[in-house]
Amino acid sequence: MLNYKMVRKGKDRERIMEQVFQYLSENNQEHLEQLKQFLRIPSVSTDSTYKEDVKKAAGFVAEYLKNAGFRHVEVEETNGHPLVFAEWLEAGAEAPTVLFYGHYDVQPAEPLGEWKSEPFDPDIRDGRIYARGASDDKGQVFMHLAVFKAFLQTTGKLPVNVKVCIEGEEEIGSANLYDLLQKEKEKYEADFAVISDSGMVANDQPTILYGLKGFTGLEFTVKGPDNDLHSGMYGGAIRNPAMAMAHILTSMKNEDEVVLVEGFYDGVEELTEDERDLMQKAPGEDFTVSTGAKETVSEKGYTAKEHTMARPTLEINGLYSGYQGEGTKTIIPATATAKLTCRLVPGQDPAKVQDLLAEHIERKLPKGVTVSIKREPLSAKAYRVDPNHPLIRKAAESFSETFGKEAVYVRMGGSIPVVEWLDSIYHIPVVLLGFGTPEDRLHSPNESFPLDHFEKGMQTIANYWNKVKKID
Amino acid sequence: MLNYKMVRKGKDRERIMEQVFQYLSENNQEHLEQLKQFLRIPSVSTDSTYKEDVKKAAGFVAEYLKNAGFRHVEVEETNGHPLVFAEWLEAGAEAPTVLFYGHYDVQPAEPLGEWKSEPFDPDIRDGRIYARGASDDKGQVFMHLAVFKAFLQTTGKLPVNVKVCIEGEEEIGSANLYDLLQKEKEKYEADFAVISDSGMVANDQPTILYGLKGFTGLEFTVKGPDNDLHSGMYGGAIRNPAMAMAHILTSMKNEDEVVLVEGFYDGVEELTEDERDLMQKAPGEDFTVSTGAKETVSEKGYTAKEHTMARPTLEINGLYSGYQGEGTKTIIPATATAKLTCRLVPGQDPAKVQDLLAEHIERKLPKGVTVSIKREPLSAKAYRVDPNHPLIRKAAESFSETFGKEAVYVRMGGSIPVVEWLDSIYHIPVVLLGFGTPEDRLHSPNESFPLDHFEKGMQTIANYWNKVKKID
């Protein structure tokens, strides 16, 4: 098998691939300019003042696909933002059908004061392109659009049958996509799906992402008196809602980072030794360096890496009570609110975990206060695919051939709900082909994407379509 | 002793007193109109936009005292708002000298939208006068000014030697008064002090307030990573500052309302059985009715009443961390902040307690986060005078003669720093002659003061000066 790779490589580097790579190379500057156009559209899905811009971004994607050579392109209206659907199904019956999913909407840019360049005026510096959406997800979506175009413009065809689904609501929960997938099941049906909305563990380090965490959450408000009270007159007679909330919170997780909510870990698929070895091979992020935290912590019995990748978590995302201004105000606050979310792993059911959280809160509620719970309607199950699946192996090969390094295998702490839906509705593998890096600063000011990943990513994608045209 | 009260009453109702009571009765409407003028001046000390109005209110007080018959009246400039000082020292060497202290500044009126009438346009309805400052403290200060005038205008003299000190910074900590008391000790020196800036336990229930709590506080901020983090990518590796803060907070007070900070209760003067009996006689406030809280709580071993009056407390006044807007944001917050204040009882030293709080927080800080502490510069020791002191007994008598009811004896959970300063600088009794009611809504929208207390209060005060002209 020693020359297997070189021989395969030779066969892979057929005339077709050479044409495609040449096209990509010649058009790299052009592609960057087109990406900039895409990035200039402030397609902020969560904010209704940008509704028209969101539409505009959908139009950009549709137009690009049409110009690329997709004959069937629709901008599908929904109850929210439009969804762009396109298909090219002329690769033949032997070739598989792939659903490429992405999103053209972006996070809000706030806080604006912390951006070094304008969030919607792409700036290239230090080998990166800076803009909101550069990494999540426009940079990566555009790479796929350009590769489709490269194939169609040079060879007149794609190696695989392709359905393209690019929505505008991923940042706000993809509610309408979910409905469409349910109602129009056959339209989106495919043999497998590919998504590029994640990242590599480090710059230039091919990464196979074979698992995602699930997600559930809620908000609870503890209420004491009807109004804020003078703490001198009433301190000693009234349960302080902020302190009651603190007691509830500390009953949910201890200082060993173990979640104490009864039943929380039931059904959790344990990490096998094989997986622990696989994870260990992936370079660890020095979290103290990347985040500025004094030191890392992790669940008792697990490393920080294992905990972020494959153990469930419970986090406070926000809390507020009483007086928050400058100086002192001697009150007993009327209410106290905490927002919690959990990241889940295979074996956990989001609805069940949400129930457990709510029950726990009600059970731990101290005397003298009441509680109201607002459940987060969005949720997702965890996702995990066999790292040895042929589609996964070919992705690893595509990566290593382009980047010149073996891929590492990881599971991610984040959630991508659409992955779980595709898994549960179609029971197909979802290949997470991510080209981002830890420095991209998703969801934060000064989001960026590395230019060399932009180039190499397109080569990797092109290589991948060629490899999977025949599934072993 | 059966007829003692009636005989004394007869002697008390000397011609002088009849004259004074008649004057008060005839001028009641006039007094109300003058009070309204006083209330119309928005003397909000904390807000510099009202600086000129604050001056104007000082001028009102000074003018009134001059017209009343005080020959020595000064508006003393300070580094902040002016202080009005006046003295009338012609009662003779046998008569004691009293320092009457009050304040002409008021709390801000915000939130404005919740006032039923304009905060600085006094409105009379339901037997009350509604305006910011009606109870705290202009209504009560004015009563004293009117009584001084009543004596001087009818009899040409006051029963006691009087020093008047009415400042404009009580709501913001009286910093300049403190300096003046230190620097000009003799100027303000007296045999005892009288303050009317507190309330009765219920409408029409004479109340002897013989103790106040002290006060100390701080704010602490727990810091984790440099920025808010994506909770999927970093959950499991980074200590959540909000949860760390919750762990610190719950280590400070348990669900039995006992403060757990080491050394907190050291030196606390215990409640004697006599005092517990005295307190029990005071009508209890039904805290669930007055505040809307579901039920009351109290420190293990003490009733809610005892706890509010005479046991130290630790309260969270505010806290905030991370995302506080609508819906969900899946972050690990970078920081979490809590504001704490303690009400102290005799035996506790505010600076020492503040140290204990800070040390405790640092000791309980979990691994993986840092903390910064901001100490509240304002503090006050508790105050307690012997309920059997002659000056206190005479206050009780003055009350019961006017209101026709025995006075109840209480200690208050609130703090009045100037009381503690007078105690520690001059070592004199401070008589808290309060005419407010629980419905006055100090520091809140729709502050008001009952008109019958306005009338009866002036009678009580006049009666009191007459009684204390000779101290047994």
UniProtKB/TrEMBL annotation, chains A, B:
Any Pfam family: M20_dimer
Gene Ontology MF terms in the entry: metal ion binding; peptidase activity
Keywords: Hydrolase, Metal-binding, Protease
Domain Peptidase M20 dimerisation, chain residue ranges per copy: 210-368
GO biological process: proteolysis
Family matches, as SUPFAM superfamilies: Zn-dependent exopeptidases
Alphabetized NCBIfam families for the sequence: PRK07907.1, PRK08201.1, PRK09104.1
Stated name of the protein: Acetylornithine deacetylase/Succinyl-diaminopimelate desuccinylase
Organism of provenance: Gracilibacillus ureilyticus
